Amino acid sequence: MKYIDEYRDASNARRIADEIRRVTTGPHAIMEVCGGQTHAIVKFGIDELLPPAIELIHGPGCPVCVTPVELIDKAIAIARQPDAVFCSFGDMLRVPGSRDDLFRAKASGADVRIVYSPLDALNLAKNNPGKQVVFFAVGFETTAPANALAVFQAHQSNIENFSILCSHVLVPPAMEAILSSPDCRVNGFLAAGHVCTIMGYTEYEPLAKKYNVPIVVTGFEPLDILHGVLLCVRQLEEGRAEVENQYARSVSREGNRHAQRLIETVYQIAPRGWRGIGTIARSGLALRPPFDRYDAERRFDVSEIVAHESEDCISGLVLRGVKKPRECPAFGTRCTPDHPLGAPMVSGEGACAAYYRYKQSEPAVLAGPCA
Amino acid sequence: MCLAVPGEILSIDEGDPILRKARVSFGGMVKEVSLALLPEASEGQYVLVHAGVGISIVNDAEAERIFDYLDQLGELEESGGASS
Amino acid sequence: MNGQTPESLSCPLPLPQDEQITMIHGGGGTAMHRLIERVFKSQFDNDLLRQDHDAAVFAVDGTRFAFTTDSFVIQPLVFPGGDIGSLAVYGTVNDLAMAGARPLYLSAGFIVEAGLPTQVLSDIVASMQRAAEASNIQIVTGDTKVVEHGHGDGVFINTAGIGVIEHGRVIAPRSIQPGDAVLVSGDLGRHGIAVMAVREGLEFETTLTSDCAPLAAPVLALLRENVAIRCLRDLTRGGLTSAVNEIAAASGRAVHLRESAIPVRDDVRGACELLGLDPLAVANEGRFVAIVDHSDADRALDTLRGHAVDTTPAVIGEVLDSSPARVTIESRIGSVRILDMPSGEQLPRIC
Questions:
Q1: B26 and chain C: CB distance < 8 Å anywhere?
Q2: What phi, psi does C338 have (nearest 5°)?
Q3: End-to-end CA separation in angstroms for chain B
Q4: Which of A162, A305, B51, C119 could pair covalently with A154 via S-S, beta carbons 3.0-4.6 A apart?
Q5: pLDDT recorded at residue B32
Q6: Residue B13 parent element (H or E)
Q7: What residues of B are in contact with residue C201 (Cβ under 8 Å)?
Q8: How far apart (Å, rounded) are the C-alpha atoms in residues C201 and A128?
Q9: Burial of A14 (0-12, 13-18, 19+ CB in 10 A)
Q10: CB contact under 8 A, C205 and B1
Q11: Strand, coil or helix: C320
Q12: Using CA atoms, how far apart are residues C15 and C247, in angstroms rounded to an integer?
């Protein structure tokens, strides 16, 4: 497969890894923000090719992991309404709410369906005029235009039985929350390549300057991630703190203008709760008028639903990169992918699940510098 | 979150720009993809697709850059006698 | 790792998965295995059940027989390359074949939902008869029950089968030895992806069809060629990952695979990339893994090629002389990781 296979070549991966080893002197803690990169790192064993002086920290870039428990409860309440067809990406079905998850709601008779695209959910609404079709619009900037497109098309075609339960979060505010935290250990970032495909990377330039931290926009294949690490390490070794673009085959500095315009048309910036981190100002998106007619939280009265987020849940520390999954006393014993205690163990992209799947029998030795 | 996969545009269904669609092949598996965000995409190009929506056109010249860089590394290895 | 739990640890509320049955218990992963251990094996406990194989093997007057059963619940009832009827025959025939048996007779039990068009049922039964002929067996007894509309997905089918074992080999996980070769009979993931491609909300345009097929003929051919077969397992829910993990756990041996050697078609890979699925854990219905003495591996491949219509069997790994019992895999970039049992049915994901 073009643009995939050539980036998974073993000998080239080793050559980049050798170069990383050659240029690395000091210890560096590098955070890959996006869960998709976390997934690739563990699946391909990319971290095994790195010298011990480089520690990869898994960031909060997994919308499954950061979706507040309250929103899962609202999703389940909506799914259980008569005449509701609740559509979601498969990722969200096993994320625990207060008492239940969408999988159990489905097993007990709720009409919960997995779709590949929000446009598939819109089609379901077109084809089932007697039903209220709701799409669980989670995701970062990458997914926002797809969800915005579904709402925009619904608006244009007057499809009134469609709405979205919106939980969009934005990456730069989360990065800033991590960087401004007193226990921040991160020396450099691999920025999420697909988020930047949409947004470009101008937003990261002030962050790199203000916090004196290199930020490398990075793709998702093994060679991309290794190359991103190499560019980041080079900057750290040379004392630079710039935004670099490793993923230029997909990302330009200004991003996809059409997508940005659509996001601005349909959404406005809003505060968002992040599981394990808390509410971050201006860190999410909400539907703006007139598109707020398509807001499922207005259409179904779920405002009563309030769920308590535990302040000291370790998943928050994991998501911020302060602790590694294996440092959690429940890891691999009371908390496994079958019995997830926290969202990072549910999502295939979650740091805990990734560790559990691919690294569970390693000794729990945690080397790594503190920034 | 953000699985996005490159696929080849086989054909385009023009019309209202917001409804612009293409048939895109992923290793021979063909899926209908929205091109609403890529008005300039054309047949034969590779587009990166996320959740049923094309989000960028893969830039072929840029895609080669990492391999040019690897070639340079190779030359360095040979001239410097570095072993891998 | 197993330190004391501090007061401060209160992750989002756990959902004890096993208080009631959820769909995850049917997904071919760890939850299903736990259910089997705790509910079924603990109470049905006996020597034959403890063989831990797809079929029970027992002797009557010196002749060895294999006996197995399987139920089929699938939506849609008809999918590209097969239907619930052919699946119900091949599934049980294949479980007998994996015990090294020559399948003889099947039973067929139907649980039909009121409202199902009789023609649909008749077409399914016709498909079963064609599959029986292709598998060289007869369906000799059966049963029918009807449930109220809304209490079943059109039709559920159960088949049980009996076969005769006409050789002296012990084909079971306990027979595998360090150094044995791990073979797969063909490319992976076609069935799961073909079924998914026709599901509402995930549709693909594809010529891909299910790999659904009877496997007795290739297994009997391996036995005729006197290949030193140690263990066989057909790949169903949970795919290769699940099957090899089951073998490793039941044998107490470590198994090592090479990802680059495992055959997966490009279109299946394309769909898996798009849906965030691992092709190694996607369902199959006409593929099996064979563990054979390494000196017989080439002969086994040649024999399988004679039975593979449109695919290539391959050696994909070996049994290690090490513990613990687990499965490792060398990734495409040369790193080694653990290939863990999937926890349940894989869901299409976008992150």
A1: yes
A2: -80, 135
A3: 34
A4: A162
A5: 96
A6: strand B5-13
A7: none
A8: 13
A9: middle
A10: no
A11: strand
A12: 29
Distance of alpha carbon C10 from its chain centroid, rounded?
A: 38
Task: Tell me the CA distances in angstroms from A251 to A248, B7, C226, one per residue in order.
Answer: 5, 16, 58
Please say whether the beta carbons of C24 and C343 come within 8 A: yes
User: What phi and psi values does residue C276 have, to the nearest 5 degrees?
Assistant: 65, 35
Distance set, CA A214 to CA A177, A190, A228, B14 (Å): 16, 9, 11, 42
d(CA A47, CA A190) in angstroms, rounded, equals: 14
Give the global pTM.
0.90
Q: Which amino acid is at A51?
A: P
**Alpha-carbon gap, residue C115 to A295, rounded angstroms:** 38
Reported as a single tens digit per residue, the pLDDT across C20-77 is 787 778 777 777 888 888 889 889 999 999 887 889 999 999 999 999 999 999 888 9
Considering only CB atoms, C2 lies closest to which of A10, A333, A338, namely: A333
- The residue type found at A259 is A
3-state secondary structure of C32: helix
Q: Using CB atoms, which residue from C203, C205, C270 is nearest to B23?
A: C205
Query: Is the CB of A91 less than 8 angstroms away from the CB of C336?
Result: no
Give the model's confidence band at A321: pLDDT under 50 very low, under 70 low, under 90 confident, else very high: confident
Subunits with 3+ C-beta pairs closer than 8 A to B = A, C
Smallest Cβ–Cβ distance between B53 and the set A1, A149, A250 belongs to: A149
C283 vs A282: CA distance, rounded Å: 43
How far, in Å, CA of A114 to CA of A120, rounded?
A: 10
Q: What is the DSSP letter of C41?
A: I
Asked whether the beta carbons of C236 and C28 are under 8 A apart, the reply is yes
Asked if B51 lies within 8 A of C269 by C-beta distance, the reply is: no
- CA distance to A10, A101, C297, C325, per residue, from C259 (Å): 12, 34, 18, 19
pLDDT for residue B75 is more than 90: no
Mean of pLDDT over chain C: 90
Q: Which residue of B has its CA nearest to C269?
A: B27
